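I am writing to request your help with a piece of structural work I have in hand. A protein sequence and the structure tokens that stand for its backbone fold form the material at issue. Please examine both parts with care and let me know of anything in them that strikes you as inconsistent. The record follows directly beneath this note.
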Amino acid sequence: MRMPRFSTKRVSRTVSIPAPIGGLNARDSYADMAPTDAVKMENWFPLPSSVKLRLGHSVFSSGLGAYVETVMAYNGGATQKLIAAAGTNFYDCTAGGAVGAAVTTCTNARWQHVNFATAGGYFLSCVNGVDAPKAFDGTTWTEPAITGVTTTDLITVTVHMNRQWFIQKNTMKVWYLPVNSIAGAATSIHFSGLLKRGGYLM
């Protein structure tokens, strides 16, 4: 009987693997990815020719009682504030360290916001589609008197042509306020004629 002959010689080769400078690629299949793409990057940041290890973190503010889901910067000329939405409260985190009492309350901590200047001052306008809109002037939180629309349905505040614009959630409507104003009668534009396959704006 013949026995097969096996080679005992170990064969190896050196292969260079490039650094994942292309960053995280969650779009393409593995076969279509460039050699410089990564399927997972934990604590690494891509640079033009290498990757850099994340340097860690330090606690800036504490005592918020829940996860921070929105961080908002108020830029009112010489006055600047850092506001964090956590749980059902807003906190002033400008000074860092342990926060004090909540500056205002809310239903959830997922807010959209924009800074807006009017003749009455600088304002941070905030909406979340659940609570009434909020406005901050650097000192006081208020709920602007917006009429003509259910204000608890407003999301995605933005500024265009000196007006504040909003989307009415789960609809094809946008609403805008008078020029240079954070309150007043809102006017709508309906985009249903353009969205022939249905849906809603985001």
Notes: The chain has a mean pLDDT of 92.
